[in-house]
Inverse folding.
């Protein structure tokens, strides 16, 4: 393992060879940094390459590590007492209370309290709490979406025939020709402005069922910074799907 010195930081990297590589390059991922060389290339070329771009490597590595930390905060939610559940840019405290009861109950007063049956196993408790937390997020997101849609309705002049918050494996939102807007419940885990951008995006499809210039012009008129939030979803949100 070689070391790249950038200011006071030390970045470990390796040099590998690939039959498919036609040009030398630096590859950066959450797991590490490596220089990829075509077969037969002198190792010194790899060292010279990474030294010549070390400040760019340092910036890219910092960005990727930050993105990975964000991804883990969303994907490694713990459904136990003391956990923090992200919701539209805030954190909601979670308390799990085992007690004698036949049904799980959810209470919210600024923090979430899930009251579960005392005779459940630890795995059953976690599964039940997860189900209740996700249901709570869906319910809250539906309310937030309904409020935002009313505001956008006055600006766009159209209104969806329905709003559904559900689990979607590959997309954040959709709007079909039936004029029903579907949103991924995991949008509730993200900052509010990211969620609002997706709602704006789908509402604009009520006017333009495509991604034409007219569509993006309408999006921009409602959310001038839409590119920033679309980029956020690509680089941070997609890891959660």
């Amino acid at each position: 393992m070689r070391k790249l010195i950038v200011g006071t930081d030390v970045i470990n990297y390796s040099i590998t060879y690939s039959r498919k590589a036609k040009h030398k390059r630096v590859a950066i991922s959450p797991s590490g940094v490596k220089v990829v060389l075509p077969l037969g290339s002198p190792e010194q070329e790899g060292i010279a390459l990474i030294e010549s771009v070390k400040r760019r490597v340092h910036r890219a590595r910092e960005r990727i590590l930050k993105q990975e930390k964000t991804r883990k905060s969303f994907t490694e939610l713990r459904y136990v007492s003391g956990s923090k559940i992200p919701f539209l840019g805030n954190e909601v405290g979670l308390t799990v209370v085992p007690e004698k009861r036949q049904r799980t109950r959810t209470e919210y007063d600024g923090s979430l309290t899930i009251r579960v049956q005392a005779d459940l196993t630890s795995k059953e408790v976690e599964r039940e709490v997860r189900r209740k937390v996700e249901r709570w997020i869906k319910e809250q997101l539906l309310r937030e979406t309904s409020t935002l849609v009313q505001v956008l309705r006055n600006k766009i002049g159209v209104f969806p025939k329905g709003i559904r918050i559900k689990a979607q494996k590959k997309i954040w939102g959709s709007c079909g020709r039936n004029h029903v807007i579907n949103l991924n419940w995991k949008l509730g885990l993200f900052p509010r402005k990211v969620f609002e951008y997706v709602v704006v995006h789908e509402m604009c499809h009520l006017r333009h069922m495509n991604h034409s210039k007219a569509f993006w012009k309408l999006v921009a008129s409602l959310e001038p910074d839409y590119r920033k939030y679309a980029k956020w979803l690509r680089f941070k949100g997609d890891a959660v799907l």
